[in-house]
Amino acid sequence: MKLKVLASAITCSLMLSAGAHAQKNDNILTNPSFENKGLGWSYWFSNIKNDFTHEGEYRGRIAQGKNHHISQIVTIPETGYYDLSAYFISPSNDATLAMTNLTDQILVSDKIKQSTKYQRKNLKHIPLEKGEQLKVWFSGSNQGGVSVDSVALIKSNKSKPLHFNQIIQFSTQEQVDVTSVNKISRDIKFQVPFGTDLTSLTIGKFLISEGSYSSINTGDVIDFSQPVQIAVIDDNNKEQLWTITAIEKEKQVVVTSSNTKLQDSFEWAMEKTQRFVMTGQHDLVNRDEYNNDGDGSADYIPSYWAGYFDRTAFYSRDFLHQASGAKIAGLEPENFSMFKTFAKHSTESRKWYTLWAINFDGTPHTIDYDDDNWFVREVPAQFEFVEKAWKQYQWTGDKRYIEDDDLWQFYTKVLTDYIELHDDQDPNGIAEGYGGIFEGSATYNERGEFPIEAGDGIGSQYQATLAYSAMLEAREEYNDATLWREKAQELKRYFNEDWSVVDPNKPLENYVNIVQKDGLRLNDFGKENSWFMPMKLITEPGERNNRYLDFIANNLGDGIGSTPEAPNNIEAYTYIPETYFPYNRNAEAWKWMQYIMDTKDEPHERPTQGTNGDYPEISFTFISNTIEGLMGIKPNAAEHRVSTASHLTNDIEWLSVDQLPMGEHELTLRHDGLTKSTLTNRSEHALEWEAWFYGDYPTLIVDGQAIRSQTKQVNGQQVSYVIVPIAKNSTRVIER
């Protein structure tokens, strides 16, 4: 490979500003004994445990497998020699204590000896330079779990003079992710977004050893279309050559915005989702918080994590909520594989329920499955499979979602035999639960009563019925499509006029959210079985629905701990933007998107699974809530149509998405406030665009020309809109 050499002697001795100093015996690590619920550490097939510690309340535990690890990023505060130590219990001699660069390339390491009680392992006199960004890193053993506690990285008492001549930090203004700096091989790699002009990248940070100079400087514009060789020269004129390589990432969705918090959060979410992809790996199955090392290992199917990060599984409820975000993040093969796997697990012996939790190899996860009579199941998930599969078809146009035999049988059985088999306590056409989660719960709310019917169940059944009708129409089975559309309309009428009414003389009272076995009908706040009703659009728009949305907001307050009814688990709040965006209550929806990002680095309510941000639903749904929520994109890939509606708030002046795939199309959409939308169709097929603007606007401006608009009611809100064609590889602008 051709190397471009920059050898001019431009002095650029960049120093770190005076700051913290590492004194002897000062531990520069954060939370060295895994207290505070394990914050400060990153875990891969690892977690904290509150037993058998060396000191304090918690220890780190690495599950069986040399590829599993715990790590912490540290920036060296002062040049000197450092000692890295920790206390370990290890079943064999194959576990490792190491320091790595930010991309896990090992720079210094040693093996951990087998022991049945805590023994101290020490890497002494590691020469480190001020400003180096490294990881303290422990890997596991193939023979069993490894415990680690009482970690220390302290400046040692070795006083021998140190001399460095190296690149300490490097970045460009255009790059994404961290830079890989390998001081052993003198090799640097960084990534830039797809489509970046590699011939003109601007150096953003360039930090080298004190007294050294180099051939480049911060602010220089460099051609990185080929690897570039950089000379670093010390005060003795000794030269070291470093190779710096720019790597163009694969094409993916990119969001930019006037609101940097939104833009940065979306970028974080896109990168985080990739961490959860398990496709093609070979690793543990049936791992959970009680069985830390699982029950052996297996080859993984195309899949991604959906559920607690200390369980090797994808859960139906989580998967269904993550599927749209996953599609936007480029995980179409994983989505279809997971839908198909769940469909095949829906059997007659299980009364057409599918499984709740599935290992990454496609087998039942045993924490939630004993046998076909005793396994976790919840009514809303059954129906969400139909609704969310239809959403995948809308995004992709992939006919397998409406033609695959396993999927089609699953949808049909859910809406026929499944309902019939679970509607015998109060026969009314609504699928019922029979108790707790192992008997079959009527609701997603696992922290309350055991009703036989619930608002999230009936709301999900309504959307599934609509989706099944739409699927039939897409299959050109028009008579059946009409029949099922009428069933959906009747179900909505029954809900609003009968099922949800406590007292006919009080028509504006809260909707009933659960029905108990003795017939008692409650309309209190039931978390999921409350907010799912307006979210699934089974509630009729109007004053009653508006009051109910206020009721939900009041019970949620400002999040965890702010009201007696506010959920304690962060993932519950990921549904709330989807509850408010459809009613154009944008500030309320955006409030919860921000809340989720503001708390992503805090411990999860179940800290053994990591931080809030380590719960997969957080990142996946932030993606979908940005694209489908804030940007109001409603795809129809099969018919080459798309609808858009800006839901931006006052603190988001503009928001743009690029490289958004929708079937055969690649879209670029920008909203400027609530007044202007610009859509580019980057494909070889024409596209029909229905551009919505909330409010009554008799005309809309299309490419500078006033066009008479149409109006309609959308969830009780008036929308003015126009439908315009966009030719292949063309852009159109519409404003009010």
From TrEMBL:
Against InterPro entries, the record matches this protein to: 6-hairpin_glycosidase_sf, 6hp_glycosidase-like_sf
Keyword annotations for this protein, in alphabetical order, are: Signal
Q: Known SUPFAM superfamilies for this protein?
A: Six-hairpin glycosidases
Q: Does the keyword rRNA-binding apply?
A: no
What is one Gene Ontology biological process annotated in the Swiss-Prot or TrEMBL record? Answer: carbohydrate metabolic process
Tell whether Signal is among the UniProt keywords: yes
Q: Check the UniProt entry and state the signal peptide residues, or none.
A: 1-22
Query: Under which name does UniProt file this protein?
Result: Alpha-L-rhamnosidase six-hairpin glycosidase domain-containing protein
